[in-house]
Design a protein that fits this description.
By secondary structure, this protein is mainly beta. It has helices spanning about 40-45, 85-100, 160-165, 225-235, 255-260, and strands spanning about 15-20, 25-30, 55-65, 70-80, 110-115, 125-130, 135-140, 145, 150-155, 170-175, 180-185, 195-205, 210-215, 215-220, 235-250. The protein has one domain (about 15-260): Double-stranded beta-helix, CATH 3.60.160.10. It has 5 helices and 15 strands.
Length: about 260
């Protein structure tokens, strides 16, 4: 088996911005597919970091799991499977997909070669689960890809209030084990605030946490000791994370507009 690629990562308009495990993130420094009507917008987009990005998985007798529909092209001896290992596994994945809002069936690509995912104007985070004590919980819609060895699990909220009042669903997607995970984020990694808790607590006004250690206990509570105190503070209810672990937090509320950043 032999192949060569020209004018992709060796293009002077393309830069590899992140690389970990089998994953790379490539970023197009300028959008050259423009005309006289769109050139000015494309120029200022590039100046503000609004650039197309793609995730590349370099497989060497290995495998990767991706979000359904994310593949753009693949090269070499790479084959796609459903990743389903029997009837019980199928039922489990259907249930997990229903409660987390993620696609129930995430295809697996195995072999030796290159897998390139669809481009997007969003930002990509590459997470090493070993840095998160083997488990991370992510906001809905952030998962893009991971090493196939990573286990997917539906993480239930600890009480009904944390789902009904905290701006969260009943379940979030947990990614467990050892390996690398790629998350798709509306906020660049450079702007995410990282917080380490050591048997401590953080209270956040709104669902600003985009990912957190699976070891943390998440609840929703009054910001004050009483309803009157909460009303006086003007905050009301806050999302509370307790225990030992890490949190990635957006400094700004992710609006619907940011969530819907255009995808090619």
């Amino acid at each position: 088996m032999s192949y060569s690629i020209k004018n992709f990562t060796n293009n002077d308009d393309v830069r590899v911005t992140k690389e970990a495990g089998i994953f790379q993130v490539v970023e197009y420094q300028r959008d050259l597919s423009v005309d006289s009507f769109t050139a000015a917008q494309a120029y200022f987009d590039a100046q503000m970091g609004v650039r197309r990005r793609q995730v590349v998985a370099n497989l060497n007798n290995s495998s990767v799991t991706i979000q359904a529909g994310a593949m753009q092209w693949m090269l070499g001896d790479v084959n796609a499977t459903t990743g389903i290992k029997g009837a019980g596994d199928f039922v489990s994945k259907m249930i997990r997909g229903a409660v987390t809002g993620e696609s129930a069936i995430k295809p697996e690509y195995k072999g030796t070669g290159m897998l390139v995912l669809e481009p997007s104007y969003k930002h990509y985070l590459i997470i090493d689960l070993d840095d998160w004590n083997g488990g991370i919980v992510v906001e809905d819609g952030m998962f893009l890809a991971c090493d196939t060895e990573v286990k997917h699990k539906a993480i239930a909220r600890n009480n009904l209030s944390s789902a009904a009042l905290g701006g969260e669903g009943l379940f979030n997607l947990g990614l467990m084990g050892t390996g690398f995970v790629v998350l798709e984020s509306a906020v660049p990694e450079e702007e995410l605030v990282e917080i380490e808790l050591n048997n401590d607590v953080i209270k956040i006004d709104g669902n600003l946490a985009v990912a957190w250690s699976a070891s943390l206990n998440f609840t929703v509570e009054k910001s004050g000791k009483s309803l009157i105190g909460s009303a006086a503070s003007g905050e009301g209810l806050v999302n509370v994370y307790r225990g030992t672990g890490r949190i990635l937090m957006s400094p700004v509320q992710v609006t619907q507009h940011l969530q819907e950043i255009k995808t090619i």
